[in-house]
Design goal:
about 110 residues; alpha/beta; two-stranded parallel sheet; globular
Length: about 110
């Protein structure tokens, strides 16, 4: 996790990671320690990154107060899963899926 010069939090998940509820809680803890808090987040899921159903539910129910979220995915399976997740857990903040980091950053910066 890094904070870019634009104030956007860029979270990069390593290839092959299976995210659990504890991973989501740790990310939330790290977010709470940041000052000032970023209002936009770019989540980059490398190849074969997956989340358990419990982690997806927890993340949706405990999402921090953000202005916008962009997901960058690298496989068709991830694209299908993330789009379903975004539509199923209708968030009150703009959320969009991208294939490239530069596209996602451009969108976040325009928000």
């Amino acid at each position: 996790m890094i904070i870019l010069d634009t104030g956007i939090m860029h979270v990069i998940y390593k290839e092959g990671v299976a995210l659990q509820v504890d991973d989501i809680k740790e990310l939330a803890t790290q977010y709470e320690l940041l000052d000032p808090k970023p209002t936009k987040v770019l989540q980059e899921l490398r190849e074969h990154v997956n989340m358990t159903n419990e982690a997806r539910s927890y993340a949706a129910e405990h999402s921090p107060n953000l202005e916008a979220v962009a997901y960058v995915i690298h496989s068709l399976a991830q694209r299908l899963l993330v789009r379903f997740y975004v539509k199923m857990w209708k968030r009150d903040k703009p959320t969009k899926v991208f294939n490239a980091v530069d596209e996602a950053l451009k969108w976040l910066e325009s928000m």
